[in-house]
Amino acid sequence: MAVSKAKTPISEQDPGERVKNFKEVCLGYTLEEGMAEAARCLQCKDAPCVAGCPVAIDIPGFVLAIKNGDMKKSVQVLAQYTNLPAVCGRVCPQETQCEGVCRLGRAKGFEPVAIGKLERLAADWNYSQPDTLVCDVPDEKIGRVAVVGAGPASLTVSGDLVKMGYEVTMYEALHAPGGVLMYGIPEFRLPKSIVGREIEAITCLGVKFEANVVVGRTITMQEIGERFDACFIGVGAGAPHFQGIPGTTLNGVYSASEYLTRINLMHGYEFPEYDTPAKKSKKVVVIGGGNVAMDAARSAKRLGAESVTIVYRRSLEELPARIEEYHHAVEEGIEFRWLSNPTRYKDDGTGKLGGVDCVRMELGEPDASGRRRPAPVEGSEFFVEADTAIEAIGQGANRVLLSTYPELKLNKWGYIDADPKTGATSVPGVFAGGDIVTGAATVILAMGAGKDAARAIDEYVRSRK
Amino acid sequence: MFKIVSAERIAPKEYDLWVEAPMIASRARPGQFVVLRANERGERVPLTIADFDEGRGAIRIIFQAVGKTTAMMASLKTGDSILDISGPLGSPSEIENFGTVMMVGGGVGIAALYPIIRGLKRAGNKVVTILGGRTSELVIMKEECAAFSDELIVTTDDGSEGMKGLVTDAMKMVAGREEPIARCWAIGPSIMMKFCALAAGELGLPIWVSMNPIMVDGTGMCGCCRLNVDGHIKFGCVDGPEFDGHKVDWDDFMNRMRQYKEEEKISMDRYAAEAGDLSWL
């Protein structure tokens, strides 16, 4: 049978319908659709997709199992490499990783195998079974490891170490585990029940989870050093940047972190059933061009905004958001003002935002990041009416832990200076990974750092026994 | 779960809870706060730590029942629990021997002021404390503050106790004496702190205030609590809660405090409909 050129179509909620709810946009493959898609895989011996995956999942292996209809086997293959398959299948940028190097996709006119969608199919199948697959954990313990933070990097380290035979205690500042998976990525992209199940699969292996512990405040790194054989710091970037333009403290101006945390972690979209309010806005401006900007814009739309405009200082070509997220945003009626930047938030006369002064930008020479540097065009000022503005322009290093732990060497950006291969820091026995090392990046890169750190922590603890 | 070991109504709409939280109790310092979430659907609310007892492993929180969460918390009894408490958060007060300090408190702000008064007294300061309220029964913790003050002045708007007038009147009186004041602290409603800062300015005195902005996480992650201090954006939760009172943009701050007024009313009305008579608050 000839291999179809296009990916097996996947069903999605209709754009007109989905902007009225927070339910997941992508509905996933049925088993039959999944088997058909899995059959497109060429089963390359040298599997470029595996090399393209930050955690080197045996992609041909789990895809072959799906093709054969052996879902249990595909789950088992995935479990050897990842603790968060349902999450990764949804939020990994597959187009620049596994699918970006897929040999089928390299052939003229062919789309790559829908690896991400197959991964989520296997994970979702597993969670739909009465007996979810659980790994064995060694009875004998090698040592005790503290994990600070409970986002993707920390969950990966914890899952891997507990499987190797460590006693792991995970400390989280917020009331729930998951980090950015819980407070940042919206329900319509990553349902929280799915995050909850993946975390449960990790904690039921024996990882001890302690919420409401702000390391540096509730307990110190010194205490952790006394009680544990090693420690992993995966606290995320976690300090929102503001452009600092006039009017930033007006009511109606938010960081994307606040806007999304209110909606996601605190269920603001279900106010007043839940106590934390998320404002229902009429006209919304979102500043930035990353996935977080898309998430904030699409969330505002779902809260009932009449118009949502993304203001981005570069053009579509430079947009850092995943193309899938951009397309979804366009389908949902989000407008884009390319090559534009806000310069001032204007008071409506009552202390609330009334609109945003903006200026047109043009692209000059490439900057340090290799992208062309935008500069304002003189005399090109324009005004956008808005009652809400959300800044999604990135984050810096959160100082709560770092300021209480001066022994830890930081890099010139204020993030933790850690070995990119092992996560080892300037303090022996203390490892770090994820956004607190790299600055804001992706879930899968944080997981990759977590996997490397778990191996390095194991070596470190064994070397000292 | 954090178990309530004692619960008491100390003034109309003002409540005093001691809650089991050993880790927080062992770390807390004057000036710090906690963020709590009362139940599964609750919001995250910042409240100052009014006291801490490492031996009993408990912290004390005193709050005014002004909205849904605090009204609901007012109904909690000994043996009930609060789902989540995280802390101690924020930077502690700077406690050292400054000489003579003037400590001004109003409303439930007195609860936040109390551990600072105690810390400053123990550090060797001469402590002059001014506590004010609309009427006598709203001036809480008088005996406790008096125990760590060299002088305690009470002011009431209606003259029902102490000096008739405002805390700023008492500030001017104390500052008019020969003895120099090294530093002031003022903690209370925003409007009180604003006028204390203005009075301190007129009197040429340095003054610290403790800001209580709306927060979500309380650890510097969201920026909800940002305020204008000396023209710069600061986060109440990690840069504060204490700031130089002369540098705070008070009108900007008070505007931000009104941000969720409509939603707060929706929540409170729903709660009142559910809970029935709330006149006991």
Low-confidence stretches of chain A: none
At CATH level 2, the architecture of the largest domain in chain B is 3-Layer(aba) Sandwich
Taken from the alpha-carbon principal axes, the silhouette of chain A is: globular
Give a quick account of the main beta sheet of chain A: strands, pairing sense, barrel closure: 5 strands, parallel
Structural class of chain A: alpha/beta
Domain count of chain B: the total is 2
CATH homologous superfamily label of the largest domain in chain B: Nucleotide-binding domain of ferredoxin-NADP reductase (FNR) module
Largest pleated sheet of chain B = 7 strands, mixed
Task: Give the termini distance of chain B in whole angstroms.
Answer: 25 Å
User: In which order are the strands of the major sheet of chain B placed?
Assistant: 12-11-10-9-13-14-17
What is the succession of H and E elements of chain B?
A: EEHEEEEHEEEHEHEEHEHEEEEHH
In which order are the strands of the major sheet of chain A placed?
5-4-3-6-18
Strand residue content of chain B: 25-35%
CATH topology of the largest domain in chain B: Rossmann fold
Helix content of chain A: 25-40%
Strand content of chain A: 15-25%
Q: Which spans of chain B have pLDDT < 50 for at least 5 consecutive residues?
A: none
Structural class label of chain B: alpha/beta
The best one-word shape of chain B is globular
Description:
The complex is a heterodimer of chains A (465) and B (281). In chain A, strand 10, helix 15 and strand 11 form a beta-alpha-beta unit. With 465 residues, chain A is of the alpha/beta class. In chain A, 53% of the residues are buried. The model of chain A has no long low-confidence stretch (mean pLDDT 94). Helix content of chain A is 33%, strand content 18%. Chain A is globular and about 65 Å long. By secondary structure, chain B is an alpha/beta fold. Chain B contains eight helices and 17 strands. A seven-stranded mixed sheet of chain B has the order 12-11-10-9-13-14-17, with helices on both faces. In chain B, strands 5-6-2-1-7 form a five-stranded antiparallel sheet. In chain B, helix 4 links the parallel strand 10 and strand 11. Chain B is globular, with a radius of gyration of 18 Å. The two termini of chain B are 25 Å apart. The chains are: A alpha/beta (465), B alpha/beta (281).
